[in-house]
Amino acid sequence: MRFLVDECVGTSVSEYLKSNNHIVFSVFEEWRGANDDELLQKSVSENYILITSDKDFGEMIFKSQKKHKGIILIRCQPNNFKQKIVVLTKLLANYTDKLDNNFVVVTNENVRIITP
User: Fold this and answer.
1) What is the pLDDT of residue 55?
2) Are the beta carbons of 70 and 101 closer than 8 angstroms?
């Protein structure tokens, strides 16, 4: 799969995804300081699913009706790279077929898939 990993998610998550043979664009490593509109535009134009911890993307998708190719919003506790990897591992093991073009909220306890 193709993932654009927001800088708020971290490089450890990017490295984990790369080690599992995913194509990853790490904002922290390659485009630090890009704004949310730029990230969303890049994800659409280059067919990436955006992984973020930034709730502003929900407003962009649902309120402003911005186009996207899929967004994964990570809301886990503790909010560290180890727990982010734990919840992403579970998500990718069980919901890969539901990530494209959906807004997915993943927490320690559950996964919520919203089709905008």
Assistant:
1) 94
2) yes
